[in-house]
Amino acid sequence: MAFTARMLPHVLFGAAHRDASLPHRRLVIVSDEALSEVELRLLFPRLETGVLVHVVGSGLESRSPVGIAGPKLAEVGWDPGKGGFGERDAQRLRRAGGAAVFLKPHAQCSGRMLRDLRRCGVRSAIFDEGGRWKRAAIERAIAGKFRLDRLPERFGGRARPVLSRLGAALDGSVGSAVRVVMMEGACDLGRGAEAKAIARFASTLGAIERNRASRKQVKRVMHFVSSLDSGGAERQVVHAAESQRRRGLDPLVRTQAALSGQRAHYLPLLLEAGIEARQAGAIDAEALGRVGDGVRESAGLVQALRDLPHSVRDGVLDVLGELMLERPDVLHCWLDEPNVLGGVAGLLAGVPRIILSTRNVNPSHFPHLHRPWMRSWYRFLAARRRIVFAGNSAAGIADYARWLEIDPARFILLRNAVPPEAFDGPEPEQVEAIRREIGLDAAQPLVVGIMRLSIEKRPDLFVETIRRVRLARPGCRAAIVGVGPLEGEVLRQVAALRLDRAITLLGQRREVSAILAAADVVLLTSDYEGTPNSLLEALALERAVVATDAGGVAEVIEHEQTGLLAERGDAGALAAAVNRLLGDPGLRQRLGRAGRDMVRECFSPDAVSGRTLAAYIA
């Protein structure tokens, strides 16, 4: 959540009940996000002393603006695994006063934290419910975390009066809260709630859309993606923006995540091309005022924002603020969560053309990426005329269409682009430097994998394949380029198999071209893929490729013609294919040359850019 999502609801709705700011001089402040000095001053203009609470391990430690001019703020950590607050932190909380403000709705607050705060002297809680401050006694807020009508069916209705009497016996206020849920929106309203919220939102949106005029020319294009990490979708965002800049358009890039560290991997390329990029919603107070004024000009838009469910509201607000400030002719979204959030925001802002670019098979295959609200919102967006669905592989399009139960013709096919410089290759000195870094001698073969270290890419299968390859070729070495949540598990697997000197994890790297050029074989072991950029870039450098037949891979690799394919999960077949290529330099050269010719013909930037621009104006 960026500045817009945190502050816009207060700008729009705060004055409906009371002023958007809180008048307290002492407060306990609980936030899931790092707070800026501007946000503190806008939300708490009279604050003199207080305590900022972060969850231990959340990454917010020492990131809040402690010691700024004005309020004196201490930080404490809440660790649910170690009893909540330590004694020293508990004393700080007792000195901070009896009120705690949560910069999120009651539904998203932890009941355990509420109980721990109560033990530390907090007597009242204030929740940010969509820009309106709602206050409750801490006991009522704790009790409001329970929902009797969501009890398991096996208890039937008999449990409710029993628990109500028990609650009343313990504490009158608790019993009152148990009988009726005290906090509005205290929890999920049950099965079908998202569908009802979408229907309500659609009704309000319909009135707005009838009054919107469309624009026919395309000049300004806003790309919205999760981050600028080293992934394939992020690389395609850079290609698209650079190509559009060369064609005289005005592209700009916005991201969900703050652009720092690994998430800013491709940012230098955009800045070098003169393309503006920043986190969506990371605006200043003056720009926020302009957005608020623009929203208030439409009563229907204000109501539509009120109707947005919590599941998507914050993300939509951040993008909406950018769209109202920049007024693009096209909003091009990439990846599932940005697709949904950007699609809804684009409709609200009246963007004439909105592209939702899917990059793989549907998100239900990826538990770490899937959100339960995605399918409902995707189906809602599929019914809007201004929305264009795009996929980068026929296999991915077919999978999404089955999942959404819509006609595959609702999608257009937009292949990945491979830029001309990808065919040039690195200097020999760069390639030699990579081989020295890995510790290879002149005769040792190298197998390279370019992947995010996540479950769908199957880095475990890559390691197992290399283990089997080395049974026949003990001198073979391998390298993995990429980072991800499974990095620790991969390192443990490598150590357990005693492959520490055989497999090198190179991490996130910029000189990917040199690493690919150093490889004798490029290996892809994914279970799910759209059109993998790593294969396209390897083929552009005439590298021999072995890959699983996952998703759109077979649309890139023709078995025995441009590479070798194996069934998903088959380490034996993958190892056999790698060994075959390592033992046949002539076959490697033939497949590499055929692959290079295919990529140059089918994945050229001009062809992809032309089809993309056609989608923008169709």
Describe the fold and architecture.
By secondary structure, the chain is α/β, with parallel strands linked by helices. It has 3 domains: 3-144, Rossmann fold; 195-413, Rossmann fold; 426-602, Glycogen Phosphorylase B (Rossmann fold, 3-Layer(aba) Sandwich). A 7-stranded parallel sheet has the order 9-8-7-10-11-12-13, sandwiched between helices. Helix 16 links the parallel strand 12 (387-391) and strand 13 (411-413). Helix 8 runs antiparallel to helix 12, helix 13 (310-326) packs across helix 14 (336-349) and helix 21 (533-540) crosses helix 23 (585-602). 46% of the residues are buried. Residues 148-157 and 163-189 have low confidence and may be disordered.
What's the average pLDDT? 87
Describe the strand arrangement of the main beta sheet, using strand numbers: 9-8-7-10-11-12-13
Number of separate structural domains? 3
Fraction of residues in helices?
40-55%
CATH fold-level label of the largest domain: Rossmann fold
Low-confidence region ranges = 148-157, 163-189
**Bulk shape:** globular
**N- to C-terminal separation?**
33 Å
CATH uppermost class of the largest domain: Alpha Beta
Question: Sheet bearing the most strands, described?
Answer: 7 strands, parallel
Overall strand count: 19
Structural class label: alpha/beta
How many DSSP H or I helices? Answer: 24
Estimated share of beta-strand residues: 15-25%
CATH second-level architecture of the largest domain: 3-Layer(aba) Sandwich
- Rounded to the nearest angstrom, the radius of gyration is 27 Å
